[in-house]
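Query structure, 251 tokens:
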């Protein structure tokens, strides 16, 4: 008989010890009761468990029973309309979009302003920037600190356009299906773009990282890889270790 999601979860809870387990270890265990279990079939069932929120990835080929939910960015009407426009005019361009106000969930002090961040692949950057300038107010391209101080408005209508790093952690929003940044990418970007995210530095930065790890499932392998790609792995490593200490390693 095929192993259902609940049956597999029961095996994980009763037969595997420790806070996490290796996928290969689970596969070998399940094969004892289902000799003809294909690796492709097993991987699909593992994917289903992740989709159902029953398990979470904690590294390459390593999982744990989910303790925290997955962070999802859902786009408001404004961001959906911007995304629709970009998709219509530049159907093959890679981009992602999110708003800084999603960070309010994790901050102690609520900022008085927010802005939209749109990251675009290099080849389409100039075209999409020009398009956005025609249709939206106060659109800034890779702004410097001086430009941020001069032009970043407090009316929450500013749009920041930046270059999208290749293979950056992005995903489609669950409802609108437009590309957004994954939370692990945002955490790292706060370390990279310190001028852009000046409101979220210092004690607020530590609080955002800490509260995110408390509330949501974070794939640390992906976070570490992206931090290394952006040359902030030492900063990320220090923050994660501080969080581990506060949470007694339970992240």
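Result returned for the query:
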């Amino acid at each position: 008989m095929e192993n259902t999601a609940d049956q597999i979860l029961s095996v994980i809870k009763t037969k595997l010890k420790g806070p996490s387990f290796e996928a290969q270890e689970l596969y070998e265990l399940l094969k004892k009761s289902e000799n003809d279990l294909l690796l492709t079939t097993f991987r699909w069932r593992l994917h289903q468990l992740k989709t159902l929120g029953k398990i979470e990835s904690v590294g390459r080929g390593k999982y744990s029973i989910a303790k925290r939910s997955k962070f999802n960015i859902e786009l408001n009407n404004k961001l959906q309309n911007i995304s629709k426009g970009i998709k219509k005019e530049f159907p093959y361009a890679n981009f992602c979009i999110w708003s800084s106000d999603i960070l309010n969930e994790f901050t102690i002090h609520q900022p008085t302003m927010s802005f939209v961040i749109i990251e675009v692949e290099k080849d389409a950057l100039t075209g999409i920037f020009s398009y956005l300038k025609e249709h939206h107010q106060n659109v800034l391209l890779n702004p410097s600190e001086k430009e941020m101080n001069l032009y970043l408005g407090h009316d929450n209508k500013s749009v920041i356009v930046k270059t999208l790093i290749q293979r950056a952690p992005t995903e489609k929003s669950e409802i609108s299906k437009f590309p957004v940044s994954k939370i692990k990418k945002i955490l790292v970007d706060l370390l990279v773009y310190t001028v852009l995210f000046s409101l979220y530095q210092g004690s607020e930065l530590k609080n955002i990282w800490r509260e995110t790890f408390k509330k949501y499932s974070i794939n640390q392998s992906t976070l570490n890889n992206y931090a290394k790609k952006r040359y902030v792995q030492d900063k990320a490593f220090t923050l994660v270790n501080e969080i581990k200490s506060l949470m007694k390693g339970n992240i």
